[in-house]
Specification:
single chain; alpha/beta; Rossmann fold; 2 domains; 5-stranded parallel sheet; 5 strands; 60% helix
Length: 267
């Protein structure tokens, strides 16, 4: 992935100055205002670093960088302003999680060094994310393999369920598809604590004893306890726990309802 930089301002002459000052050092795109900035991210992004002016019409720099955080959370965000406004600076830091706040006029050397620092931070974020993903993938694969060895019937069901969930999530256009697929893949991980005969009875339609029924109904909670301690698996663990008692979905499907949507699909 190229380490590109996006500079956003509502004044064209300032954007021209950015291109002239930075073209020797970085690959730079510019956008006139927040709306064009978001369009640039959609069409050309993601960017390693996004630099924005604070005071812009229609969409302030605080609002813009908060939206950047939602769209591309790995991007490093910087703010430049001609006003020494402490309240706005605090809002920018809190809402947009700003890496660095610079005051106009910014000397070229200061801007270049700040962007180099931002790129180093971006490299650290990406490297940490890749390490975490590799660790997560390893943990998930080990769990799935354990389930396949201990309870192959439950494992075969999760394999079919994953295909169904992938299809549903793709059709619905939901983001973070990996969470739903992992929830399906690990939905029966709690079955490693059950006797294989119990699982066979469940899926062959045979009558269960009260003890067997209670044991089977408890496997989502067991699975949740196994998953919730793994980094980035909190939502997946909750989906698994609620698969027999899904949360209601209120209104439109949104990222804020990840667990509710996942539990409904698994149900």
């Amino acid at each position: 992935m190229k380490r590109k930089i996006l500079c956003v301002d509502d004044e064209a002459n300032i954007l021209f100055a950015y291109r002239r000052q930075l073209k020797k050092h970085f690959e730079v795109d510019t956008a006139l205002g927040g709306r064009e900035g978001l369009q640039a991210i959609d069409s050309k992004g993601p960017y390693a670093v996004v630099v924005s002016d604070l005071r812009m019409p229609e969409m302030s720099g605080v609002e813009f960088l908060a939206k950047v955080l939602e769209k591309t959370p790995d991007s490093i965000r910087m703010m430049i302003t001609g006003f020494a406004d402490l309240d706005s600076a605090m809002s920018a830091v809190n809402e947009g999680r700003i890496f660095r706040f610079l005051t106009k006029p910014v000397e070229t050397s200061v801007l270049v060094s700040s962007l180099h620092a931002a790129l180093k931070q971006y490299d650290l974020v990406v490297a940490e994310k890749e390490l975490l993903e590799n660790t997560l993938n390893g943990a998930v694969n080990v769990m799935a393999e354990v389930l396949s060895l201990v309870n192959p019937i439950a494992f075969s069901r999760t394999s079919r369920l994953k295909k169904y969930v992938s299809h549903c999530v793709s059709r619905l256009g939901i983001q973070d598809q990996w969470k739903y697929e992992l929830a399906a893949m690990l939905s029966h991980i709690g079955c490693i604590a059950l006797h294989p005969d119990t699982i066979e009875k469940v899926y062959s339609g045979h009558e269960l004893s009260d003890e067997e029924r209670d044991a089977f109904r408890s496997h989502p909670k067991t699975g949740c306890r196994l998953l919730e301690k793994i980094p980035r698996m909190e939502d997946v663990a909750e989906m698994v726990k609620l698969q027999f008692n899904p949360m209601p979905i209120g209104g439109d499907i949104s990222d804020a309802q990840v667990v509710a949507v996942g539990s409904q699909i698994l149900h």
